[in-house]
Every structure is written in structure tokens, then in C-alpha cells.
Amino acid sequence: MEVVEVLHMNGGIGHTSYANNSLLQQNVILRAKPITDEAIRSLYANLNPKNICIADLGCSSGPNTFLAVSNLVKAVENQRKKLGRRQSPEFQIYLNDLPSNDFNTIFRSLPKHQEDFRREMGDGFGVPFFNAVAGSFYGRLFPTDSLHFVHSSFTLHWLSQVPQGLEGNKGNICMATTSPLNVIKAYYNQFNNDFSIFLKCRSKELVKGGKMVLTIMGRKNDNPTFHLMELLARALNDLVAEGFVEEEKLNSFNTPVYTPSLAEVKSLVENDGSFTIECLETFQIHWTGDEYDNDDNIIGNNNNAAYKVARGLRAVIEPVLVSHFGEGIIEEVFQRYRKMIADSMSREKTEYTNFVISLIKK
Ligand code: SAH
How does pLDDT run across 297-349, given as a tens digit for each residue? Predict the structure, then answer.
């Protein structure tokens, strides 16, 4: 599977689109907002650029695409007023994703967003210039010293490729509890390579003193379990048992997904050496994107929660599944998957672990 060609979130604005099923990711952006806002506020206060260049890497297509960047623009504007600076900087915004991302839907909604900016920010505010940058963030995307701020949320768990050397990962579709050591090592090495390249490229593209805030889906400890993917593997194994899918077809399927630990992320940043870590925080978020209250009940829990979670995963993983198994199995997989999610949610605390890391280019 060629990740660059295959990977994209479900496009458009329909029932199964990413645009309609990305509440979890939206809440992740909101949880990281205090750190993101503070990072860009201090960048603006210190560097005071006339034109401020901001890139959102892995922007996808949907409400989150504009949410992340408009939060950044607003944070700068608020800071400008606080500092009593007369002139707003000009905003140059770069929206990046892989070439098969639904950029058309983004740009179709651009006039509405520009109108919102005009209304909310008032006279004298220069509406941002929006640009699309199609390509992998595991390579150079921008000229040297051309960016002030890089933001990327819920993207870096996607590897540049399915790792080589996954022999013996039978029945699994990524690194899992029952994966042999060679598989764990292969996934780790791939992440190590990819994340190092990511850091190297961004360190060239950011100006000195520029900042980068990454929110990374990771894992809490050394246990390699990625529970939601293990349930998906179980749903696929059921289809094999029922004769819908050939065993060999499933055995040759692995996903380019890796959830790093905090220590891994931190040590790769330190090894790279071009960034100072300004802030590093961990937070948990429930599979539905809702939060737990003090009694460990999910706030906003409802009977449709499992359905919501399954649809959320479907919006993300469907193109990858279709490219390997074809469209015929999709409804069957997700029906089974939903039941497994419901069962799991009724028995245990089901959450994602996320790291927010704010970095300054040395
Ligand atoms: N940031 C958005 C989207 C998260 S989904 C949000 O918070 O809602 C992850 C996105 O990362 C997808 O759109 C996927 O296509 C993109 N992505 C994954 N690997 C990428 C790569 N190598 N280069 C650019 N984008 C990538």
C-alpha cells in the first residue's frame, strides 16, 4: 500500500465523511488550545513579524481545518490589542495534507470562513491569505526559514509507510499485545525514522524563534495495545471465520499507524537537537471525544456512543480498508466493530492518550 496515494479521510460532507465525524479530533484541538494559544501569543509578542506564516499540517477536510487556524489568528489578534500595536500582521496560512485529501471541499467553504473573519474581527483586519500545500509532511513542504508557526493535531500516528519486516503479526493489523518482538521493533523503527525526518524538515522551514505545537495520539505506557485497532482486527478476523475474507488477505494487511510513548517523543526531539521544549503535557480523552466527570462517568454518554465511535473510525480508516479488501466488506466490518466497541465501553475506561508538545526553533 502506498500511503501517499491511499491515505485520506473520507471526503465530502455526507453521512460517513470526516467532516461529519470528527468531533473527537475537534475536542482534541480544544483541549490543546491553551498551549497553542500561549505559544503563538508569545511568538507574536517576541518576533513581531509583519507577515506571519502559519502552517497546519495534516489539516484534513471539515470544520476542524478552519477551527485550528482561526484559533491561531484570533490569539494573535487578541495579543496585538493587548500590546497596543496598531497594525495587524498579514496572515499567510498554509493548509497541508496528502494529495488525495478533499481540498475541494475546504476551498468551497473558504468564502464563508472569510466572511466570518470579516464579521468577527472588524474593520481594519486583513483577512488571511489561504494556500493549499499538497504533499507528505515526511519531506520538505516549504522553503528554508519561511514559517513562523507550525501546528499539527492528531496526525503523527500515521507513518509514512507500513513498516517492513512484519512477519508473524498474524491476526493483528498493527502493533498489538500479541505481536512478536520483530513487529514491535519494526513499528518503532519506522516511527523513529519518520518523526526524525519530520523534525529535520520543520527545523529547516521554521525561522529562528519560530514555534511548533504538535498534538500526538500516543500510548500511556509501554503496553503496545491500541485498543480500537485491536477491536477492528477482531472484527476482520470474524469475517475470516465466517468465510467473507480469505485468511491470507487478512494476514497480508497491516496499517501504517503507531502510537508512541511520551518518552519516545521526548527523546527523539532531544536527539534532533534543533528545538527547545517549551511545554509538554499529557491528557486523556474518551473514544467519543467526551470527557469523564469526577465519578468516572462519561459526560454526554448516550446509547449512540458506540455508533459514533465506529463512524469516527470509519471516516478515518475506510479508504485504507477499501484499498486492500475492496468495498464489499465495509458494512459488515463496521456492524461487528460497533458491537465490539459497545461491549468494550460498557466494561472499561476507553480513552485515547494525547501529548501536546510546544517547541521553539533554536
Ligand atoms: N488535523 C485534523 C485532521 C486529523 S486526521 C484534525 O485535527 O481534525 C489526520 C490527517 O493527517 C489526515 O487528513 C491525513 O490525511 C493526514 N496525514 C497523514 N499522514 C500525512 C502525511 N505524511 N503528510 C500530510 N498529511 C498527512
Answer: 554 455 577 777 877 788 788 888 888 888 888 888 888 888 888 888 777 77
pLDDT over 70 at 261, yes or no: yes
Model pTM score: 0.90
3-361: CATH architecture: 3-Layer(aba) Sandwich (3.40)
- Report the sign of the C-alpha dihedral through residues 41, 22, 315, 162, in that order: positive
Ligand 1 nearest atom to the CA of residue 28, by list position: 7
SS3 content of the chain, % helix, strand, coil (to 5): 45, 20, 35
In the reported structure, the alpha carbon of residue 161 is separated from the centroid of ligand 1 by a whole-number distance in angstroms of 14
**Ligand 1 centre distance from Cα of residue 111 (Å):** 23
- Using DSSP's 3-state secondary structure scheme, residue 259 falls into coil
Q: And the C-alpha cell for 174?
A: 498493527
What is the number of the ligand 1 atom nearest to the C-alpha of 316?
5
Q: How far is the CA of 155 from the centre of ligand 1 (A)?
A: 5
Ligand 1 atom 26: the closest Cα is on which residue?
58
Best of 56, 155, 318 for a ligand 1 pocket test (most atoms within 8 Å of beta carbon): 155
| C-alpha–C-alpha distance, residues 196 and 138, integer Å | 9
The full set of domain ranges for the chain reads 3-361
Ligand 1, atom 23, residue with closest C-alpha: 136
Residues 73-127: pLDDT tens digits? 999 999 999 999 888 999 999 999 999 888 998 999 999 988 888 888 877 777 8
| pLDDT, tens only, 166-183 | 988 988 988 888 889 999
How many A from CA of 147 to the centre of ligand 1?
19
Query: What's the maximum distance between 2 C-alpha atoms anywhere in the chain?
Result: 69
Q: In a 10 Å sphere around its CB, with 0-12 CB exposed, 13-18 middle and 19+ buried, how is residue 287 labelled?
A: buried
